Amino acid sequence: MRMRILVVEDEPKIAGFLDRGLTGEGHRVDVVTDLAAARLAVAVEAYDLLLVDRMLPDGDGLAVVRELRRQGARTPAICLTARDRIEERVEGLYGGADDYLVKPFEFEELLARIAAVTRRTPLADRIEIADLSIDIAAHRAFRAGREIPLTAQEFALLRYFAEHRGHVLSRTRILDAVWGTTHDPRTNVVDVYVSYLRAKIDKGFDTPLIHTVRGAGYVLEAQAR
Ligand code: CA
User: Fold this and answer.
1) In-domain check, residue 225
2) What is the DSSP string of 170-213?
3) Which of 68, 79, 142, 204 could tie 100 with a disulfide, CB 3.0–4.6 Å?
4) Running DSSP on this structure, what letter comes out for residue 112?
5) Number of structural domains found in the chain
6) Per-residue model confidence (pLDDT) at position 119
7) Which parts of the chain have pLDDT scores under 50?
């Protein structure tokens, strides 16, 4: 799956190496060089993975992971550290990171760690949004206590929305993540499936959960838009 990755790294050589390598693997990469920019980036964008350096000009990059965890986000995070002393590794794991890499590291090793943390992390086992409840493992969804029968593709779309709740997702991004990159970008499959989902999830309820954001895409959230 193509991922949206945030690299938080102030050393230009390492940041450039990660950006080129991960872009080459088909991912979309944003690079920021300090903690303040990282906080802003995660507030605006729903990333699938964070790669975070610990020694940034304005503090420890793990702070941004800790803050996300406190808000309940389980976005996989790998800590990049030049400090290879064991106590700092342990602190890194307790700080909410899923894994760490000691610099310098081989790109192949990074890819292996990324595969491990993203495989291990369904972003949650169960997601609740207002009276919508999604059981990720069982592939079942309920609204107001009643099960909603969904096809595999509808469930994949609902899960993607739910894992990025509150974030406006463009059609292109949804297409990449749920259907893969081989799809014709001019297709209207996203709009078609969103209408199927709406008919099942929102029809007959006073508070719709799937909202259209004109010119931008769609968002799943409990508040009205
Ligand atoms: Ca650094």
Assistant:
1) no
2) -HHHHIIIII-TTS-TT--HHHHHHHHHHHHHTTT-SS-SEEEE
3) 79
4) H
5) 2
6) 75
7) none
Cβ pair 123, 75 in contact under 8 A: yes
28 alpha carbon to ligand 1 midpoint, in Å? 22
**N-to-C CA span, the chain:** 30
CA of 116 to the centre of ligand 1 (A): 24
CA of 57 to the centre of ligand 1 (A): 7
- What is the structure's pLDDT at 101? 87
- What protein residues have CB closer than 5 angstroms to ion ligand 1? 10, 53, 55
Residue 118: closest CA among 166, 179, 48, 165 = 48
Q: How many angstroms separate the CA atoms of 221 and 199, rounded?
A: 16
E-strand stretches of 116-161: 126-129, 132-135, 140-143, 146-148
Which pair of tokens denotes residue 56?
């940034």
Same domain, 37 and 144: no
Give the predicted TM-score (pTM) of the model.
0.61
Query: What is the distance in A from the centroid of ligand 1 to the CA of 33?
Result: 9
Q: How far apart are CA 121 and CA 118, in angstroms?
A: 5
Report yes or no on 19 lying in a domain: yes
CATH number at residue 81: 3.40.50.2300
Strand partners, 146: 143
pLDDT tens digits, residue range 110-166?
A: 998 998 888 765 556 788 899 999 988 788 999 999 999 999 999 999 999 998 888
Name the residue range of residue 105's domain.
Answer: 4-120
How confident is the model at residue 58, as a pLDDT? Answer: 96
CA 77 to centroid of ligand 1, rounded, Å: 16
